[in-house]
Amino acid sequence: MQVDKRKIEEAVRMILEAVGENPDREGLLDTPARVGRMYEEIFSGLHEDPKKHFATIFSEDHEELVLVKDIPFFSTCEHHLVPFFGKVHVGYIPQGGRVTGLSKLARAVEAVVKRPQLQERITSTVADSIVETLEPHGVIVVVEAEHMCMTMRGVKKPGSKTITSAVRGIFTNDDAARAEALSLIQMK
Ligand SMILES: Nc1nc2c(ncn2[C@@H]2O[C@H](COP(=O)(O)OP(=O)(O)OP(=O)(O)O)[C@@H](O)[C@H]2O)c(=O)[nH]1
Ligand SMILES: [Zn+2]
Fold this sequence. Notes:
Layout lengths: L4 H14 L12 H12 L14 E3 L6 E12 L5 E11 L4 E3 L1 H12 L2 E2 L1 H16 L3 E10 H4 L10 E8 L5 H12 L2
Parallel strand pairs: 2-5
Antiparallel strand pairs: 1-4, 2-3, 3-6, 6-7
The structure holds guanosine-5'-triphosphate and zinc ion (ZN).
């Protein structure tokens, strides 16, 4: 099922009433519909398989690291439905000449982050999508993010960063390969 915007509109109206607002005042009249359109956009990844982006495979004899770093992202914390955002770094070592388009790595990230999410799940889903499609020697994904649920509310720790990583294949046991990828990710 695609996004039911009418249902979101009803729910937003109810939330506005519940917090003590008047959903019929001028400034709020279009808000339920706007929020419906916004949720359709920021949760569009629920209807998209990130793996579909790896259908584009070039045959290229390169069995060394390919790293796309600093891919910016915005996601939505599934616990509080507030944003968390930061950067994703995706590296893989192709095998058997299976190389994908660089933009496809960023497209797969977009499909994964546009859902109610956990940072850990973003990290592992991106890694596993690459493993299952390109069957590379190895994959490394690092995500660094700031969670609004930790800054604007609750424990209120603005500036704190959460870093998660997922390594697959050769990166799990080859210290030199992992060190190379991590140093390139950290390089400014
Ligand atoms: N592991 C993980 N935790 C997250 C993520 N996003 C938010 N959280 C945490 O989810 C937890 C939810 O905890 P609860 O105790 O159920 O909710 P809460 O009472 O609102 O928690 P506080 O934020 O501590 O006020 C919090 O500790 C959040 O920091 C994430 O991506 N990964
Ligand atoms: Zn949260």
